[in-house]
Amino acid sequence: MIIIAIRTVLLYVAALIVVRLMGRGELSKLDPFQTVVLFMIAELASLSIESPNISVFTGLTALLTLLFLQVLFSFISLKCTWFRNLINGKAILMVDKGKINEKELERLRISIDDLTQHLRLKNFPSPADVDYAILETNGDMSVIPKPDKRPLTPTDIGLFMADEKIPLVLVADGQLYLSNLMKLQKNENDLKQELLKQGIESYDQLFLCFADEKGTIKAYRRNEETESKNSAKIERWDVQ
I want to staple 154 with a disulfide (CB 3.0 to 4.6 A). Which of 12, 33, 80, 159 is the partner? Predict the structure, then answer.
């Protein structure tokens, strides 16, 4: 029992490291090659855990070999277009200038119901509203609507919009994120003063506090039951 637990921990950590070293890009695409690699990682890890006659070293060697192949193929794909197309495939136009590409639907064995379902999932219930629909290599579909069906933007009406900042979490579950506060070019005393205006005297009273895209600080208190349980340990701070 202890040996199985140790093998599980070792292979879990190894599989986690291998997937992490594959890179975030690999996890976001999940094209056919990445899908096969992830399935093989799971299978190799489970075999090494369940089979006492397979050593942990053998399982680790197989996982590292997969990692090497993945990194090698990714590097070659960056340098060689035909190899990338061979491994990952190419994006395919399913709707071209408002016209459904029947040949590609037939070649890929995609029914018109499947196509319209994808369009509905992208908030386009009518194919007549679509200018282009591209089936990406990861199986997702990108949809570009016709110009008269696109949402109105401030630029369309000549409205100037000031630059916005990315929202930043400042306090989460009572924990201060000082680095995010520094990105706002504010110090902790500035934050405390703003929170006092909202009737908050301690970080422990906060469930969430963040700065929105305009830099406005917004705070959400814990619910009353949780706050009452933590009331004994809440320490009020002084503002200079």
Answer: 159
Which residues have C-beta within 8 Å of that of residue 175, sequence separation ≥ 6?
A: 203
In the sheet that holds 141-145, the strands lie side by side as 99-100, 92-96, 130-135, 141-145
In this structure, the chain runs to a length of: 240
Largest CA distance in the chain: 72
Start-to-end C-alpha separation, the chain = 59
User: What's the confidence (pLDDT) of residue 91?
Assistant: 85
d(C-alpha 112, C-alpha 114), whole Å: 5
Closest CA to 224 of 237, 205, 202: 205
CB 137 within 8 A of CB 88: yes
Distance, CA of 201 to CA of 203 (rounded, Å): 7
- The pLDDT averaged over each successive group of 10 residues in the chain (240 residues) is 70 72 55 70 74 76 80 81 77 90 89 91 90 86 89 82 84 88 89 89 88 89 64 56
